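> run fold Chorismate mutase
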Amino acid sequence: ESDVRDRLTLESVRDSLIRQEDSIVFSLIERAKFPLNAPTYDPSYFLMPGSYGSLVELVVKQTEAVQAKAGRYENSEEHPFFPDDLPPSQVPPHKYPRVLNPAAVFVNVNKKIWDVYFNKLLPLFVAPGDDGIYASTAARDLECLQVLSRRIHYGKLVAEVKFRDEWKHYEPAIRARDKKTLMDLLTAPAVEKAVKKRVTKKASIFGQEVKVGDDSDENKGKYKVDPAVVSRFYGDWVIPLTKDVEVQYLLHRLD
Ligand SMILES: O=C(O)C(=O)C[C@]1(C(=O)O)C=C[C@@H](O)C=C1
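> ok
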């Protein structure tokens, strides 16, 4: 345990955030293989008995139920979108290192992530249209949601490291419930700028058509997911939500 605590540095958590960018960009590219496929999100398309709502809700709820049984949510880095009525883990407990304050489990912004992903992001990066392949579409959505949720809730770890490094500054603000000061303390504008630049670059590199034996420039500038959309999504949602998580976590840090 002490080992993990010691290895936790601002550099190591930032490295993890950088690595997670790859997963996020790739998941968006995978989802963008399919058009919007609106029936996936339409409860009236999916008319099975039971109260699942849309097809995507069925896929997410049932997958989370299976993964809960397999122990996924015993790990404090994982957050379910539908935490109510999840079955208990059925595997022997794994001794995850206790790094976060236990009050952290109650910080969960997945409702917001769900809303932003489906209502703000999706229409911007997938083509309009309907190819009928809804089950695969929902599976790709789940993948996107899970990697985004993981990244955004990683804010808890980021905040924990920052608190340990600078508790003298954070403690008074936490006791005063001063969200504005906490937000100012944890904000690093140069880092945010670098994150946005890097995801733009990743989206253009990962999303290029790679051809062998064709030197034409025909595909230049054609990307599977618009790099500008990814960058804006990070700037407008991913980073702000991560910061929300950081503030919420810090407010509970002394509980
Ligand atoms: O790297 C940090 O220090 C973070 O807190 C993460 C993050 C981000 O979401 O990428 C959020 C806030 C900071 O202003 C910079 C970057």
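The pocket of prephenic acid is lined by residues 14, 17, 158, 186-188, 191-192, 195, 239, 242-243 (CB under 6 Å).
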